[in-house]
Design brief:
Blueprint (H helix, E strand, L loop, with lengths): L11 H10 L11 H16 L16 H15 L3 H6 L1 E9 L5 E8 L2 E3 L6 E3 H9 L2 E3 L6 E2 L4 E2 L2 E9 L3 E6 L13 E3 L7 E2 L12 E12 L4 E8 L6 E5 L2 E6 L9 E8 L1
Parallel strand pairs: 3-9, 4-10
Antiparallel strand pairs: 1-2, 1-8, 5-8, 6-7, 9-16, 11-12, 12-13, 12-16, 13-14, 14-15
């Protein structure tokens, strides 16, 4: 892929093999890159998974949150075991708190990427998107859950934090509406240098120091009616940025040209 003697690589055999298993990708219609990535990684994981099935998860409510997280992760790893999981999967902590009795219910779930909302401003920083992701949400009305202590439906608050960070962090900027009739063109300023993204403010444990370095971007140009994807990747040896536009490869892009309103998926590596 990074050979100086290779102008470009066209993964026709990979697409053909994948499409033969998943017919929805057999034509040349435009598909959502984030949905495809999730589907692709999950398919690779399923093919390589050597985990054991059948055992039910049992976690003692009297344990500390960190111990619950460890037990949940150990159980998950026994069932889902592959190099894909090792590289891309992290663990989210979800806290549901009753506004009447104050009881907190904590659950831990694996995640393959973070889908973060965009603020209403035309220009923002990635940290503002991450702040929205972990911002406290009020569950009221039809969304009220049942409080395990009150034994009835109560108004609750819900928050997310990151319990376990993956080696490769994938951040999806939610530019498209749920119906995909509209697309947001906000410019999101994201860290592009080495160890520039500090994820500590979003960690469940305050003593976590998690720094990430950007290594790739998936850009979407166009509208919901039609568009085009372009990849921008950092060479692992020369540290130079290159743009991959179908079979056209442009080299020597500077970090100053990476941020644009087209950025759709960001790929970070843990430092």
């Amino acid at each position: 892929m990074w050979s100086p003697n290779t102008h470009s690589v066209t993964p026709l055999e990979l697409k053909r093999a994948f499409s033969s298993k998943h017919r929805m990708y057999s034509d040349y219609n435009q598909q959502d890159a984030q949905e495809f990535l999730r589907f692709f990684l999950d398919s690779l994981h399923s093919a390589l998974n050597t985990g054991n099935k059948g055992e039910h998860l049992r976690v003692d409510d009297n344990l500390s949150d960190n111990r619950k997280a460890e037990q949940t992760w150990e159980w998950y790893c026994r069932h889902e075991c592959s190099i894909i999981r090792d590289l891309f999967v992290g663990q989210l902590k979800s806290t549901l708190r009753c506004t009447v009795c104050g009881n907190a219910s904590v659950t831990f779930d694996p995640f393959w990427d973070l889908s973060v909302p965009l603020p209403s401003s035309s220009r923002c920083k990635l940290e503002a998107c991450l702040d929205l992701f972990i911002r406290e949400e009020v569950l009221d009305g039809d969304e009220m859950p049942t409080c395990s202590k009150c034994q009835t439906r109560r108004k609750c608050t819900k928050t997310f934090t990151i319990q376990r960070f993956p080696k490769y962090l994938v951040i999806h900027l939610k530019r498209f509406s749920e119906t995909r009739w509209s697309k947001l063109s906000n410019i999101v300023e994201f860290p592009t240098g080495e160890r520039e993204l500090n994820m500590a403010p979003y960690a469940a444990n305050t003593n976590s120091n998690m720094y990430y370095s950007l290594y790739a971007i998936s850009n979407h140009m166009g509208s919901t009616a039609g568009g085009h994807y372009v990849a921008i990747c950092k060479h692992p040896f020369t540290q130079k940025w290159h743009e991959f536009n179908d079979n056209l490869v442009s080299d020597a892009l500077s970090e100053h040209h990476l941020v644009s309103s087209s950025a759709y998926i960001l790929f970070y590596e843990r430092a």
